[in-house]
Amino acid sequence: MADTTLPTRTLASITVPDTPLITAAIALARKHLTDVSYQHIMRSFLFGFAIADKIPPLQTRDKELHALGAILHDMAWDTTNTFISPDKRFEVDGANAARDFVVQQTAHLDFQTWDKHRLQLLWDAIALHTTPSIGQHKEPEVQATGLGIFVDFCGPDAVPGTITKNEWAAVVAEFPRQGFRDGVVGIMCGLCRTKPETTYDNFVGDFGNELVEGYSRKGHRSMDMIMALVE
Questions:
Q1: Per-position DSSP letters for 194-213, written without gaps between them
Q2: At residue 1, does pLDDT exceed 50?
Q3: What CATH architecture does domain 9-177 belong to?
Q4: What's the DSSP call for residue 175?
Q5: How distant, in Å, are the alpha carbons of 82, 83, 195, 205 from that of 87?
Q6: In angstroms, what CA-CA distances link 182 with 34, 60, 173, 177?
Q7: What is the distance between the alpha carbons of residues 64 and 22, in angstroms, rounded to a whole number?
Q8: Domain residue spans of the chain
Q9: For residues 189 and 182, is the Cβ–Cβ distance under 8 A?
């Protein structure tokens, strides 16, 4: 079970939980991510809390889990290849990395605070963060993680009535957006070049279609499989 009485701190005007596991997750992200990616995950973390704390159905979420989902959601963008597989979508690599991190960090505990259900929710929150048409129908932790990431891409009005101008300004001042668009485009194009088979059935392939010479989904799409069915 999650601890419902977590210590807190204020970061860039947003109140967030403050636990050793969250601190360790931030350190892991800082070690393995570029400045652009690190600033993105921290903004996503803070925006997610600003949003979810104002939406009643999300207020009862497991806040430590939400924090870890946001902070670790892009570990497959790491610069050391530590968390990058040759054959899995980046969202799955990130979800696996987060789950392994929590298991390793909590292995010494005398009691199990991270049971299989909590670990699965963490995995789902990260694996589904680019698929809101599914994620927003799941548990509050999955929803909250996705909303914070969504707002960082789409702006403060993306979830109306949740992010104030002052909150947005404070978070962006602490974790600037400079280079964000170009950084994300570079990462997506890199995935299309280095492991294209993980991009054919999802949005990453859109970058390949438009920006990567020689990239093609043809023959790899679900439509191609269906059209090839033998009557």
A1: H-GGGTTTSTHHHHHHHHST
A2: no
A3: Orthogonal Bundle (1.10)
A4: S
A5: 14, 12, 7, 15
A6: 13, 36, 19, 11
A7: 7
A8: 9-177, 179-231
A9: no
